[in-house]
Amino acid sequence: MSDKLPYKVADISLASWGHKALDVAENEMLGLMPTREMYSASELLKGTRIGGCLHMTMETAVLIETLVAVGAEDHAAAVTAKAGIPVYGWKGDMDEEYLWCTEQTLYFKDEPLNMILDDGNHNGMTTNGKLKVLAINVNDSVTKGKFYNPCGCQEPLTDGIKWATDVMIAGKAAAIAGCGNVGKGCAQALQGFGACIIITEIDPINAPQAAMEACQEGNILVTTVGCTDIILGQHFEQMKDDAIVCNIGHFDVEIDVKWLDENAVEKANVHLQVYGEWTEKWAL
Protein backbone atom coordinates (compact mmCIF):
# COMPACT_ATOMS: atom_id res chain seq x y z
CA MET A 1 0.00 0.00 0.00
CA SER A 2 3.05 2.30 -0.06
CA ASP A 3 2.15 3.49 -3.56
CA LYS A 4 -1.40 4.49 -2.71
CA LEU A 5 -2.59 8.04 -3.28
CA PRO A 6 -1.91 10.38 -0.34
CA TYR A 7 -5.50 11.63 -0.65
CA LYS A 8 -8.32 11.92 -3.14
CA VAL A 9 -10.88 14.72 -2.89
CA ALA A 10 -12.99 16.67 -5.36
CA ASP A 11 -10.81 19.79 -5.48
CA ILE A 12 -7.81 20.48 -3.24
CA SER A 13 -8.05 24.21 -4.08
CA LEU A 14 -11.18 24.34 -1.90
CA ALA A 15 -8.94 24.11 1.18
CA SER A 16 -8.82 27.90 1.71
CA TRP A 17 -12.63 28.02 1.71
CA GLY A 18 -12.63 25.04 4.04
CA HIS A 19 -10.42 26.84 6.55
CA LYS A 20 -12.99 29.64 6.82
CA ALA A 21 -15.81 27.18 7.38
CA LEU A 22 -13.63 25.30 9.86
CA ASP A 23 -13.41 28.38 12.08
CA VAL A 24 -17.22 28.51 12.25
CA ALA A 25 -17.46 24.80 13.06
CA GLU A 26 -14.88 25.09 15.85
CA ASN A 27 -16.94 27.82 17.54
CA GLU A 28 -19.94 25.48 17.54
CA MET A 29 -18.11 22.50 19.06
CA LEU A 30 -17.98 23.53 22.69
CA GLY A 31 -17.07 20.09 23.99
CA LEU A 32 -14.41 19.05 21.49
CA MET A 33 -12.32 22.24 21.47
CA PRO A 34 -11.67 22.28 25.25
CA THR A 35 -10.79 18.58 24.96
CA ARG A 36 -8.17 19.43 22.34
CA GLU A 37 -6.72 22.15 24.56
CA MET A 38 -6.75 19.94 27.64
CA TYR A 39 -5.06 16.87 26.18
CA SER A 40 -2.87 18.09 23.30
CA ALA A 41 0.23 18.48 25.48
CA SER A 42 -0.05 14.94 26.87
CA GLU A 43 -0.40 13.31 23.41
CA LEU A 44 -2.91 10.91 24.90
CA LEU A 45 -3.37 8.99 21.64
CA LYS A 46 0.29 8.77 20.65
CA GLY A 47 0.96 5.59 18.69
CA THR A 48 -2.60 5.07 17.54
CA ARG A 49 -3.27 4.56 13.83
CA ILE A 50 -6.85 5.69 13.34
CA GLY A 51 -9.01 5.09 10.30
CA GLY A 52 -12.49 6.50 9.96
CA CYS A 53 -15.53 5.92 7.81
CA LEU A 54 -17.47 9.10 8.56
CA HIS A 55 -19.56 11.79 6.92
CA MET A 56 -16.94 14.26 5.66
CA THR A 57 -18.43 17.39 7.17
CA MET A 58 -16.68 20.37 8.72
CA GLU A 59 -17.39 18.91 12.15
CA THR A 60 -15.57 15.72 11.10
CA ALA A 61 -12.62 17.85 9.98
CA VAL A 62 -12.53 19.43 13.47
CA LEU A 63 -12.64 15.96 15.03
CA ILE A 64 -9.77 14.73 12.83
CA GLU A 65 -7.62 17.74 13.68
CA THR A 66 -8.36 17.17 17.37
CA LEU A 67 -7.36 13.51 17.16
CA VAL A 68 -4.08 14.55 15.52
CA ALA A 69 -3.55 17.21 18.19
CA VAL A 70 -3.91 14.60 20.94
CA GLY A 71 -1.43 12.02 19.69
CA ALA A 72 -17.50 15.32 2.25
CA GLU A 73 -18.30 18.02 2.13
CA ASP A 74 -15.66 18.61 -0.47
CA HIS A 75 -14.19 21.72 1.14
CA ALA A 76 -13.98 19.86 4.46
CA ALA A 77 -12.14 17.01 2.75
CA ALA A 78 -9.85 19.48 1.00
CA VAL A 79 -8.81 21.32 4.15
CA THR A 80 -8.09 17.99 5.88
CA ALA A 81 -6.04 16.69 2.94
CA LYS A 82 -4.14 19.98 2.75
CA ALA A 83 -3.06 19.45 6.35
CA GLY A 84 -1.34 16.21 5.32
CA ILE A 85 -4.00 13.89 6.73
CA PRO A 86 -5.00 11.17 4.22
CA VAL A 87 -8.65 11.60 3.29
CA TYR A 88 -10.62 9.90 0.56
CA GLY A 89 -14.08 11.16 -0.26
CA TRP A 90 -16.13 13.67 -2.21
CA LYS A 91 -19.74 14.66 -2.49
CA GLY A 92 -21.74 12.50 -4.89
CA ASP A 93 -19.40 9.47 -4.96
CA MET A 94 -20.96 6.29 -6.34
CA ASP A 95 -21.05 2.89 -4.59
CA GLU A 96 -17.91 1.62 -6.34
CA GLU A 97 -16.03 4.82 -5.51
CA TYR A 98 -17.19 4.65 -1.90
CA LEU A 99 -15.84 1.11 -1.57
CA TRP A 100 -12.54 2.20 -3.13
CA CYS A 101 -12.28 5.06 -0.63
CA THR A 102 -12.98 2.66 2.22
CA GLU A 103 -10.20 0.32 1.08
CA GLN A 104 -7.70 3.20 1.13
CA THR A 105 -8.25 3.70 4.86
CA LEU A 106 -7.35 0.14 5.85
CA TYR A 107 -3.60 0.77 6.03
CA PHE A 108 -1.62 3.52 7.70
CA LYS A 109 1.94 3.98 6.39
CA ASP A 110 2.13 0.26 5.51
CA GLU A 111 0.87 -0.75 8.95
CA PRO A 112 -2.63 -1.95 9.89
CA LEU A 113 -4.96 0.31 11.81
CA ASN A 114 -5.37 -0.15 15.54
CA MET A 115 -8.39 2.12 15.98
CA ILE A 116 -11.44 2.67 13.77
CA LEU A 117 -14.07 5.41 13.83
CA ASP A 118 -17.18 4.32 11.97
CA ASP A 119 -20.55 6.00 12.41
CA GLY A 120 -22.17 3.18 10.41
CA ASN A 121 -21.15 0.39 12.78
CA HIS A 122 -24.13 -0.95 14.71
CA ASN A 123 -21.96 -3.54 16.50
CA GLY A 124 -23.30 -6.44 14.46
CA MET A 125 -19.95 -8.24 14.62
CA THR A 126 -19.78 -7.67 18.38
CA THR A 127 -23.24 -9.17 18.85
CA ASN A 128 -22.27 -12.21 16.77
CA GLY A 129 -19.00 -12.68 18.63
CA LYS A 130 -16.90 -12.12 15.48
CA LEU A 131 -15.21 -8.82 16.32
CA LYS A 132 -11.64 -9.41 17.54
CA VAL A 133 -10.97 -5.91 18.89
CA LEU A 134 -12.56 -3.53 21.38
CA ALA A 135 -15.52 -1.59 19.98
CA ILE A 136 -17.31 1.40 21.47
CA ASN A 137 -20.70 2.07 19.93
CA VAL A 138 -21.34 5.81 19.77
CA ASN A 139 -25.08 5.13 19.80
CA ASP A 140 -24.68 3.81 23.35
CA SER A 141 -23.66 7.29 24.49
CA VAL A 142 -26.34 9.13 26.45
CA THR A 143 -25.46 12.45 24.82
CA LYS A 144 -25.72 10.87 21.36
CA GLY A 145 -29.13 9.37 22.09
CA LYS A 146 -30.64 12.23 24.05
CA PHE A 147 -29.14 15.24 22.29
CA TYR A 148 -27.76 14.52 18.84
CA ASN A 149 -30.38 12.01 17.69
CA PRO A 150 -33.51 14.06 18.47
CA CYS A 151 -32.00 17.50 17.78
CA GLY A 152 -29.44 16.83 15.08
CA CYS A 153 -31.99 15.34 12.67
CA GLN A 154 -34.47 18.20 12.78
CA GLU A 155 -32.80 20.78 10.55
CA PRO A 156 -31.40 18.32 7.94
CA LEU A 157 -34.80 16.64 7.52
CA THR A 158 -36.83 19.76 6.88
CA ASP A 159 -33.99 21.42 4.96
CA GLY A 160 -33.62 18.34 2.75
CA ILE A 161 -37.33 18.17 1.97
CA LYS A 162 -37.55 21.88 1.20
CA TRP A 163 -34.46 21.93 -1.04
CA ALA A 164 -35.43 18.73 -2.84
CA THR A 165 -39.10 19.47 -3.47
CA ASP A 166 -39.78 23.14 -2.67
CA VAL A 167 -43.23 22.16 -1.38
CA MET A 168 -45.02 23.74 1.57
CA ILE A 169 -45.02 21.33 4.52
CA ALA A 170 -47.80 23.11 6.46
CA GLY A 171 -51.13 21.32 6.20
CA LYS A 172 -49.66 18.04 4.96
CA ALA A 173 -49.87 14.75 6.83
CA ALA A 174 -46.40 13.41 7.69
CA ALA A 175 -46.07 9.70 8.53
CA ILE A 176 -42.91 8.79 10.46
CA ALA A 177 -41.77 5.18 10.85
CA GLY A 178 -40.25 4.85 14.31
CA CYS A 179 -40.75 6.70 17.59
CA GLY A 180 -37.20 6.49 18.91
CA ASN A 181 -35.13 9.58 19.58
CA VAL A 182 -34.68 10.27 15.86
CA GLY A 183 -38.36 9.72 15.13
CA LYS A 184 -39.37 12.05 17.95
CA GLY A 185 -37.03 14.73 16.62
CA CYS A 186 -38.43 14.35 13.09
CA ALA A 187 -41.97 14.65 14.42
CA GLN A 188 -41.13 17.84 16.30
CA ALA A 189 -39.46 19.36 13.25
CA LEU A 190 -42.30 18.62 10.83
CA GLN A 191 -44.91 19.64 13.38
CA GLY A 192 -43.06 22.95 13.76
CA PHE A 193 -43.60 23.51 10.03
CA GLY A 194 -47.33 22.92 10.46
CA ALA A 195 -47.59 19.28 9.38
CA CYS A 196 -50.08 16.88 10.95
CA ILE A 197 -48.14 13.90 12.34
CA ILE A 198 -48.62 10.14 12.26
CA ILE A 199 -46.00 7.98 14.01
CA THR A 200 -45.82 4.19 13.64
CA GLU A 201 -43.99 2.12 16.26
CA ILE A 202 -43.84 -1.51 17.45
CA ASP A 203 -41.87 -1.01 20.67
CA PRO A 204 -44.25 -1.47 23.66
CA ILE A 205 -42.84 1.60 25.44
CA ASN A 206 -42.58 3.95 22.48
CA ALA A 207 -45.85 2.86 20.89
CA PRO A 208 -48.11 4.61 23.43
CA GLN A 209 -46.15 7.81 22.83
CA ALA A 210 -46.69 7.39 19.10
CA ALA A 211 -50.40 6.75 19.67
CA MET A 212 -50.79 10.23 21.13
CA GLU A 213 -50.44 11.63 17.60
CA ALA A 214 -52.98 10.79 14.90
CA CYS A 215 -53.81 11.97 11.41
CA GLN A 216 -55.01 10.81 8.01
CA GLU A 217 -52.93 9.04 5.36
CA GLY A 218 -49.54 10.68 4.91
CA ASN A 219 -48.37 13.07 2.20
CA ILE A 220 -44.79 12.88 3.51
CA LEU A 221 -43.34 9.54 4.67
CA VAL A 222 -40.08 9.41 6.66
CA THR A 223 -38.23 6.25 7.73
CA THR A 224 -35.99 6.62 10.80
CA VAL A 225 -35.33 3.15 12.18
CA GLY A 226 -32.20 1.83 10.41
CA CYS A 227 -33.90 -1.52 9.71
CA THR A 228 -34.72 -3.20 6.40
CA ASP A 229 -38.02 -3.27 4.51
CA ILE A 230 -39.96 -0.47 6.16
CA ILE A 231 -41.65 0.89 3.01
CA LEU A 232 -42.31 -1.87 0.47
CA GLY A 233 -44.16 -2.29 -2.80
CA GLN A 234 -47.56 -2.72 -1.17
CA HIS A 235 -47.05 0.57 0.64
CA PHE A 236 -46.19 2.42 -2.57
CA GLU A 237 -49.38 1.04 -4.10
CA GLN A 238 -51.46 2.58 -1.31
CA MET A 239 -49.77 5.97 -1.22
CA LYS A 240 -51.36 9.22 -2.19
CA ASP A 241 -50.45 10.73 -5.52
CA ASP A 242 -47.47 13.14 -5.18
CA ALA A 243 -46.30 11.44 -1.96
CA ILE A 244 -42.83 12.48 -0.74
CA VAL A 245 -40.81 9.50 0.51
CA CYS A 246 -37.53 10.04 2.36
CA ASN A 247 -35.14 8.18 4.64
CA ILE A 248 -33.22 9.67 7.56
CA GLY A 249 -32.18 6.27 8.95
CA HIS A 250 -28.54 5.38 8.59
CA PHE A 251 -28.73 3.07 5.58
CA ASP A 252 -30.58 2.96 2.26
CA VAL A 253 -32.29 -0.38 2.98
CA GLU A 254 -35.43 0.96 4.63
CA ILE A 255 -37.20 1.84 1.37
CA ASP A 256 -37.62 -0.75 -1.40
CA VAL A 257 -36.31 1.45 -4.19
CA LYS A 258 -35.63 -1.67 -6.31
CA TRP A 259 -39.36 -2.45 -6.40
CA LEU A 260 -40.11 1.13 -7.33
CA ASP A 261 -37.56 1.10 -10.17
CA GLU A 262 -38.85 -2.20 -11.52
CA ASN A 263 -42.51 -1.17 -11.42
CA ALA A 264 -42.17 2.44 -12.50
CA VAL A 265 -43.83 3.39 -15.77
CA GLU A 266 -41.62 6.46 -15.94
CA LYS A 267 -38.72 7.89 -13.95
CA ALA A 268 -37.47 11.49 -14.04
CA ASN A 269 -34.62 13.39 -12.42
CA VAL A 270 -36.62 16.34 -11.10
CA HIS A 271 -33.85 17.92 -8.99
CA LEU A 272 -30.24 17.25 -7.99
CA GLN A 273 -30.24 13.72 -6.49
CA VAL A 274 -34.07 13.77 -6.44
CA TYR A 275 -36.09 11.39 -8.61
CA GLY A 276 -39.79 11.23 -9.35
CA GLU A 277 -41.24 7.85 -10.31
CA TRP A 278 -44.63 6.99 -11.76
CA THR A 279 -46.31 3.65 -11.17
CA GLU A 280 -50.05 4.13 -11.29
CA LYS A 281 -49.33 7.00 -8.94
CA TRP A 282 -46.57 9.58 -8.69
CA ALA A 283 -43.99 9.41 -5.88
CA LEU A 284 -41.06 11.70 -5.15
Automatic annotation (TrEMBL):
<dbReference type="InterPro" id="IPR000043">
    <property type="entry name" value="Adenosylhomocysteinase-like"/>
</dbReference>
<dbReference type="GO" id="GO:0004013">
    <property type="term" value="F:adenosylhomocysteinase activity"/>
</dbReference>
<dbReference type="InterPro" id="IPR015878">
    <property type="entry name" value="Ado_hCys_hydrolase_NAD-bd"/>
</dbReference>
<dbReference type="GO" id="GO:0006730">
    <property type="term" value="P:one-carbon metabolic process"/>
</dbReference>
<keyword id="KW-0520">NAD</keyword>
<dbReference type="GO" id="GO:0033353">
    <property type="term" value="P:S-adenosylmethionine cycle"/>
</dbReference>
<keyword id="KW-0554">One-carbon metabolism</keyword>
<dbReference type="InterPro" id="IPR042172">
    <property type="entry name" value="Adenosylhomocyst_ase-like_sf"/>
</dbReference>
<feature type="domain" description="S-adenosyl-L-homocysteine hydrolase NAD binding">
    <location>
        <begin position="149"/>
        <end position="284"/>
    </location>
</feature>
<dbReference type="InterPro" id="IPR036291">
    <property type="entry name" value="NAD(P)-bd_dom_sf"/>
</dbReference>
<comment type="function">
    <text>Catalyzes the hydrolysis of S-adenosyl-L-homocysteine to form adenosine and homocysteine. Binds copper ions.</text>
</comment>
<protein>
    <submittedName>
        <fullName>S-adenosylhomocysteine hydrolase</fullName>
    </submittedName>
</protein>
<comment type="similarity">
    <text>Belongs to the adenosylhomocysteinase family.</text>
</comment>
<comment type="subunit">
    <text>Homotetramer. Interaction with AHCYL1.</text>
</comment>
<keyword id="KW-0378">Hydrolase</keyword>
<dbReference type="GO" id="GO:0005829">
    <property type="term" value="C:cytosol"/>
</dbReference>
<dbReference type="Pfam" id="PF05221">
    <property type="entry name" value="AdoHcyase"/>
</dbReference>
<dbReference type="Pfam" id="PF00670">
    <property type="entry name" value="AdoHcyase_NAD"/>
</dbReference>
